[in-house]
From TrEMBL:
The chain crosses the membrane at residues 142-163, 183-207, 219-245, 321-342, 362-390, 445-465, 471-490, 502-521. GO terms for molecular function: cholesterol binding; cholesterol O-acyltransferase activity; fatty-acyl-CoA binding. This is Sterol O-acyltransferase 1. The gene is Soat1. It comes from Odontophorus gujanensis (marbled wood quail). Keywords: Acyltransferase, Disulfide bond, Endoplasmic reticulum, Membrane, Phosphoprotein, Transferase, Transmembrane, Transmembrane helix. The lineage of its organism: Eukaryota, Metazoa, Chordata, Craniata, Vertebrata.
C-alpha cells in the first residue's frame, strides 16, 4: 500500500513533459494573453477583456484602409479588363482569344479598338447612382439634412410673416407668377409634340421609300433634307420662341416651352441621324426591304429619357408606381425648396440693389452672398431634374438604363465634370457634334471639334436664358467660353489628387455666385428701369450698369 501511495504521488514523465510544453507555449504568447490566462482561473478579468477588445478594434481600424485600397485596386483592374474585352468584342465580329489578365499595352490596344461611330452608345440595365447611394445610411443622412434645412426655411418664412403681418401668410405668389399662363404653355407643347411625331417621321418614311428607286439620289436627298431643316428651324425653332415672347410668358413657363423645344429638336435629329445610315447601307447591299422603324418605336423614343435613338432599349418587367409617386413628390418638394431659397436669400438681397451706385466692393459682396443660394439651386436642379424627373419617366416607360449622370461630385478635372454632370446631353453632343465633326473634317482636328462642342453648348444655354429672362446678358456664355475652356485644359484628366477636387468645387461655387448675382441684378434693373421706347439695342445693353443713374 505504501508503494502504491508513492507511485500516486510521484509525477509521471509524460505529465512533466506536458507541463513543460505548456509553460513554453505560455512564454511564447503575448503578455496580454498570458495575463488573461493567469487571471482566468475560474474567474473572468472584465477589465482585461475590454482592453483586449479595444486593441483588436484599433488593429482592425488600421487594417481597414489598407484592405479597402487593395479591394479597390483589384476591382478597378477587373473593371478595366472587362471594359477592354467588351471593346474588343464590339469592334470585331470575328472571335478572338483574350487573356484573363491584361497588360497595359493590351489595354491601350483595346481602347484604340473601340466601336466605330455608327455603333454608338450601348444601353444596358443599370440603376441611378443616387438610388444606390441612398441605401447607405451615411449618404441618406445628408439627404435628411437638406430636408431639415427646408423645414428651417419654412419656419423662418412663417415666423417673419407672422411678426410682420400678425398672421400666418401661406401664399405662394411667386410660384403662381412664374408658372402663369399654363393653358398657353400646354397648347404650345401639344402643337410642338404632335408636329415632331408627324413631320420628321413622315419625311423620313417618304425619303426612305423613294431613295432606292430614285435616279437622282443626291437631289432627292437634298430636297427632303431641306424640308427637315426648315421644320427644325421654323417649326420647332422660331414658332415656340415667338409664342413665348408674344404672349409674354413668365420665366418658368418660358423655361418649359424652350427646354421642350430644344429637347424635341435634339430627338428629331437623333432619329434621322441614326436611321439614314441604315437606309444607305441597305441600298448599298441591294436589300429588298427598307429598314424603317415603326411609329410606335419612334413614339416611345420621344418619351424615353434619352436623346440617342434605338429601335429597342433594355426594359424592366414591371412599373413601381410607388417609386414614380415618390420621385414626382420629390420634384414638387424641390420646387418649394427653390421658392423658399429665392424668398429668403435672393429677393431681399437684390430688391433694392438697383438703388445703389455700382462699385467693385458691392459687386464682390454680391457675388459671395450669392454663392449659397447659387449652390443650393445647382443641387436642386440636379436632384429634381437629372435624378427625380428622369427616373420617374424611366420607371413609367420601364426604361432600364438609368445612368443619367455619374459621380460628378468626385471630379478632379472640368473635363470629367462635363462628361459626368449630364450624361444624357453629353452623349448627344459626343456622338452627333464631336464625333460627326471628326468624321467630316478628320481626326487631326480634335481641338477644333472640342471648341465647336463648347460653342454649341454655350450658345444653346445662353439662348435658353435669354428667352426665359427676356433680355440678353451673356454671362453664362462668357463663363463657358472663357473660364470653362480654360479650366478644361488646365484641370484635365491628369489631375487626380484631392486638391484638384477642392479647386474644382471652389471654382464651381464662385461661378454659381457670379451667375445668380449678375442675372438677378439685371432682372431687377429691368423691372425698375424699363425703357420707354425700346429698340433692338435696348434688349442687348445691360440695364444694371446704368439703372442707378436714372433713379
Amino acid at each position: 500500500m505504501a508503494g502504491e501511495d508513492c507511485v500516486r504521488k510521484r509525477p509521471s514523465a509524460s505529465t512533466t513533459t506536458n507541463k513543460s510544453t505548456e509553460n513554453e507555449e505560455m512564454q511564447r504568447r503575448p503578455d496580454g494573453e498570458r495575463a488573461f490566462q493567469n487571471s482566468s482561473n475560474g474567474r473572468v478579468d472584465v477589465d482585461h477583456v475590454i482592453t483586449r477588445k479595444m486593441q483588436l478594434i484599433a488593429e482592425a481600424e488600421q487594417l481597414k484602409p489598407v484592405f479597402m485600397k487593395e479591394v479597390d485596386s483589384h476591382f478597378t483592374e477587373f473593371v478595366n479588363s472587362l471594359v477592354a474585352k467588351s471593346a474588343l468584342l464590339d469592334s470585331s465580329s470575328s472571335a478572338s482569344l483574350f487573356p484573363a489578365s491584361c497588360s497595359e499595352k493590351e489595354l491601350h490596344k483595346a481602347k484604340a479598338l473601340r466601336a466605330p461611330p455608327e455603333h454608338g452608345k450601348i444601353f444596358t440595365a443599370r440603376r441611378s447612382l443616387l438610388d444606390e447611394l441612398f441605401e447607405v445610411s451615411h449618404i441618406r443622412t445628408i439627404y435628411h439634412m437638406f430636408i431639415a434645412l427646408l423645414i428651417v426655411f419654412i419656419l423662418s418664412t412663417l415666423l417673419v410673416d407672422f411678426i410682420d403681418e400678425g398672421r400666418l401668410v401661406l401664399g405662394f405668389d411667386l410660384l403662381v407668377y412664374v408658372f402663369g399662363k399654363f393653358p398657353v404653355v400646354f397648347c404650345t407643347w401639344l402643337c410642338m409634340f404632335c408636329a415632331t411625331v408627324i413631320i420628321p417621321y413622315s419625311l423620313f418614311f417618304q425619303w426612305a421609300q423613294g431613295y432606292h428607286s430614285s435616279s437622282h439620289r443626291g437631289i432627292y436627298s437634298l430636297f427632303y433634307g431641306t424640308l427637315f431643316t426648315l421644320f427644325q428651324t421654323v417649326g420647332l425653332g422660331i414658332g415656340p420662341t415667338y409664342v413665348a415672347i408674344s404672349y409674354a410668358l413668365p420665366p418658368a413657363s418660358r423655361f418649359i416651352v424652350i427646354l421642350e423645344q430644344v429637347r424635341l429638336v435634339m430627338k428629331a435629329h437623333s432619329f434621322v441621324r441614326e436611321n439614314v445610315p441604315r437606309v444607305l447601307s441597305s441600298v448599298k447591299e441591294k436589300s429588298s426591304s427598307v429598314p424603317v422603324p415603326q411609329i410606335s418605336q419612334y413614339l416611345y423614343f420621344l418619351f424615353a429619357p434619352t436623346l440617342i435613338y434605338r429601335d429597342n432599349y433594355p426594359r424592366n418587367p414591371t412599373v413601381r408606381w410607388g417609386y414614380v409617386a415618390t420621385k414626382f413628390a420629390q420634384v414638387l418638394g424641390s420646387l418649394f425648396y427653390a421658392y423658399y431659397i429665392f424668398v429668403r436669400l435672393c429677393i431681399p438681397q437684390f430688391r433694392n440693389s438697383s438703388q445703389e451706385a455700382f462699385n467693385l466692393r458691392g459687386l464682390v459682396l454680391c457675388i459671395f452672398n450669392s454663392i449659397l443660394p447659387g449652390v443650393l439651386i445647382l443641387f436642386l436642379v440636379f436632384f429634381a431634374f437629372l435624378h427625380c424627373w428622369l427616373n420617374a419617366f424611366a420607371e413609367m416607360m420601364r426604361f432600364a438604363d438609368r445612368m443619367f449622370y455619374k459621380d460628378w461630385w468626385n471630379s478632379t478635372s472640368y473635363a470629367n465634370y462635363y462628361r459626368t454632370w449630364n450624361v444624357v446631353v453629353h452623349d448627344w453632343l459626343y456622338y452627333y457634334a464631336y464625333r460627326d465633326f471628326l468624321w467630316f473634317f478628320g481626326k487631326k482636328f480634335k481641338a477644333a471639334a472640342m471648341l465647336s462642342v463648347f460653342t454649341v453648348s454655350a450658345a444653346v444655354h445662353e439662348y435658353v436664358l435669354s428667352i426665359c429672362f427676356g433680355f440678353f446678358y451673356p454671362v453664362l456664355f462668357c463663363l463657358f467660353m472663357c473660364f470653362g475652356m480654360l479650366f478644361n485644359f488646365i484641370l484635365n484628366d491628369r489631375r487626380k489628387g484631392p486638391i484638384w477636387n477642392v479647386i474644382m468645387w471652389t471654382s464651381l461655387f464662385l461661378g454659381q455666385g457670379v451667375i445668380i448675382c449678375l442675372y438677378s441684378q439685371e432682372w431687377y434693373a429691368r423691372q425698375y428701369c424699363p425703357a420707354e421706347n425700346p429698340v433692338f439695342l435696348d434688349y442687348l445693353k445691360p440695364r444694371s450698369w446704368s439703372c442707378h443713374v436714372q433713379l
